[in-house]
Structures are given as structure tokens and as C-alpha cells.
Amino acid sequence: MYNALIAKLRNRAKRLAGNQSGFTLLELLVVVAILAAIAGTAVVALQDTDARASAAAHVAMMDELDKGIREFRVLNKNRYPDRFDSIMDGGAGSTVGDTGAVQVSTAVHDALGTLTLSTITSAGEAAAGDTVVERLSDIGITTLRVTYPTTGNAGHDPDGSGDCDNLAALVADRGNAVVAGNIFLSPAANGCGGDHPIGNATTVLAWGGGTERITGQQVTNDIALSGAALDISTADNGLPVMMAVGLGPSSTLFDKTQLGGMTSVPVYRHVQSNEYNRFTALFRIGTTDGAGGATAVDQVLLVAIVDGAGDTKEEELGEWDGTRNTI
């Protein structure tokens, strides 16, 4: 009886197994199509996620830098941080992008032009002879960081190879600790930089990438660039002249022993390895006079922070929310 029961159960199991069938080809194709649709939806939803996350981080950095500079000024009796990066070559170079120099990104390069401070004359409430240099000094900005070639500048050689004469080669050399963002540090800190006291003959970089982009105020005529130089025409009247400086680790803004010093130096990462990867601050130092020149402001003011691609905070926000193409 027991054996008969076992045989019966085996027969029933065989009948059940015979009634089962696998997926048909059509069913498999339907499943594959559903999975493909789900994957496609996920790709669309996640596209540019990394770039948008970077944009969000850059916006936060720009906010922190703006607040940090303003707080530093309040805590240090109306004096801004000093020793900003000039983003310039201190040897024969007077423009961004000299051969062999560390480059800023093309977008930033195309928005900056050289300006000699002596071209900004005294005006307004200034006493006779009061210059924009004195206005900068009044607010705490007396020194810029420049890079010096090794030739003729003893001690400006971070690795003993003389490569401060060719910054691009120095940064590209994987056998040292020199990086583009730190190139304005001294040789002791793996850079080629040194202090340059600001004087009337000092050439600085100034913003020529559009006034409305920075201030939000529409203008009829705008300051342009003529080659590598800022070109103020007689049609330009009442416009802000804005000095551009790099926010690198040499600045007292990042001196942790200073009251109000920030604890870290933000990095902008969407540049090439041989390009300057710091943010840029714009300070209003003059006002166009409608006669082809500019007059000194009564007080130097921080206007804006732009990123390593020359974008304003609002433009970077557009990359974050998808209303503007991401990098």
C-alpha cells in the first residue's frame, strides 16, 4: 500500500510537471522592453547629476567666500583681507595667459583686461592727490601676489630645476608638489609667488565681461576689452571699474591666526590641471567718467564673486536647476 501511494504521487507530480511551460519569446521581449523603458527613464532623471551637484557646491562656495570677506572686514575694523592672487606673471608678463604661465580658464581670460592704477584719477570727496592706491590701502589692500621667474630672482625655485621660468612645465611635472592653484605661494610652499606692493604704476586685472552680469543693472554702453587691455571709451559713463583678484591660499582671508580667517580655501574643479582653479573676487575701485577715463571711488567695495569659468552666482544657479547647460 505504501509503495502504491508513492507511485500515485509520482504520477501526479509528472502530470503537473508536464502541464508547466517556460516563458515564450514574446513574453521575454515584453519584459526586456519594460526594463529598457525603466532604464531610459532613470538615465534621463539622472543626467548631469554630477555636474549639477558640482554647481550646487560652487554656489555654496561663492556664498561662503562673499560672506567670509565681508565678515573679515567687520571683524577687522573695516579692513578687507590682503595679499590676494593677482592672477598675473610678475616678471616680464603683464597679462594673463603669457606663454609658459599658468592659465586661467578661457572664459575668465576672455572677461579680464589689464588696467594700470595710475589711469584712475582722484575725484569725489578725495583730498587733492588722493589716489586709488590710497583708497585700496585705506580698506586694507596693499599687496598682491605675483609669480616671479627664477632668472634674476634668487630663491624663486620650488624644486631646484629653475622651472619658475616656465610655470606650465613646472605644474605638469609629476615629480614635484607644485599645483596650479598654489602657484602664487612662495617657493618654500611649492609655489613661485611673492609679494608685490601695490603702487600707482601697478597693473591689475579688471572685469570686462559685462557690467549687467555682475550688478544686474542694464547699461547703454559697456566697458569693453581691446586685446588684453580694458578699454574705457568716452561712451562709458558712470560704470563701475572692478579689479579682479584670485582667492588663493596666500591671502590673509585664509590665515587661521587672523580674526575672521576662513579655515579652507575653496577649489573650482571644472578646469584643466594647468589652469588656475580658484574663485575670483571683483572689487569696485573706480567709476568711468564719460571722458575715456575713470575716477577713484570714495571707498573700495566688494561687488561679487565669480567662479573659475567666469560665471556669476546666478549663472551657476542656472546650471544647478537645469535652466542652463551644465559644464
In short:
The protein has 327 residues and is of the alpha+beta class.
Query: Distance between the terminal alpha carbons, to the nearest Å?
Result: 80 Å
Q: Which ranges are low-confidence, i.e. pLDDT below 50, for 5 or more consecutive residues?
A: 90-101
> How is the main sheet built?
6 strands, mixed
**Order of strands across the main sheet:** 2-6-9-10-11-3
The number of E-state strands comes to 11
Helix percentage: 25-40%
Describe this structure in words.
With 327 residues, this protein is α+β, with helices and mostly antiparallel strands. It folds into 2 domains: 2-43, no CATH class; 48-321, no CATH class. It contains 8 helices and 11 strands. Strands 2-6-9-10-11-3 form a 6-stranded mixed beta sheet. Helix 3 packs antiparallel against helix 8 (313-321). It is elongated.
Describe the structure using short key phrases:
about 325 residues; alpha+beta; 2 domains; 11 strands; about 30% helix
Topology record:
Layout: H1 2-19, H2 25-46, H3 49-75, E1 84-89, H4 106-109, E2 112-116, E3 120-121, H5 132-138, E4 143-147, H6 167-172, E5 193-197, E6 203-207, H7 211-215, E7 224-226, E8 229-231, E9 237-246, E10 280-289, E11 294-306, H8 313-321
Parallel strand pairs: 1-4, 3-11
Antiparallel strand pairs: 2-6, 4-5, 6-9, 7-8, 9-10, 10-11
Helix pairs in contact: 3-8
